[in-house]
Design brief:
Blueprint (H helix, E strand, L loop, with lengths): L1 H16 L4 H17 L4 H23 L5 H14 L4 H25 L9 H5 L10 H11 L4 H7 L1
Helix pairs in contact: 1-2, 1-7, 2-4, 3-4, 4-7, 5-7
């Protein structure tokens, strides 16, 4: 349950605070190590998953340095990729991109169609109204991860 709970918590936290705490990404990495030990994951698979995570972290940090992705988002997508593994990393990234596009369009529609001053909106909902403001991309990352995770070798090994 570590993976789905942590991803859902990251998505909710990003929506309400526009932040993804480092503790979530660290819990995902630590949880992965624990599950890998408990499932007796082959060392080569474990190493490959960690290598994928590091590669994704390097790429997302470049996106962060270009101001195209938040730092918490970069760490979350990398931590998620460790759980997803080599066999499904492409699907994960495609799902994250697709959910990110839908999320962005939904928030842009919200900004244009829901008048912020007409309602007594809570602070997090008002933050979503900031023109050219940030998008809580952790929602798309979590959605992509949760869509792909049931197909992964790790998930299937937990069912056995």
């Amino acid at each position: 349950m570590t993976f789905p709970v942590a991803m859902a918590f990251a998505a909710a936290n990003d929506l309400f605070t526009m932040k993804i705490p480092n503790k979530i990404s660290l819990a995902l990495v630590g949880g992965f190590v624990a599950v890998a030990i408990l499932t007796r994951m082959p060392l080569e698979t474990f190493g490959m998953n960690l290598a994928i995570g590091l590669l994704i972290l390097a790429v997302t940090f470049v996106l962060f340095s270009l101001n195209l992705l938040g730092g918490g988002d970069a760490k979350l997508i990398a931590a998620g990729s460790i759980w997803i593994g080599a066999n499904h990393i492409v699907e994960y990234l495609v799902f994250v991109a697709a959910f990110g596009g839908v999320l962005s369009l939904a928030i842009l529609g919200y900004r244009n169609l829901v008048p912020a001053e007409a309602f007594a909106l809570p602070g997090w909902a008002r933050r979503l109204h900031i023109p050219k403001g940030p998008i809580p991309y952790g929602i798309a990352i979590a959605a992509g991860a949760l869509a792909v995770f049931p197909m992964t070798d790790l998930f299937l090994s937990l069912l056995a």
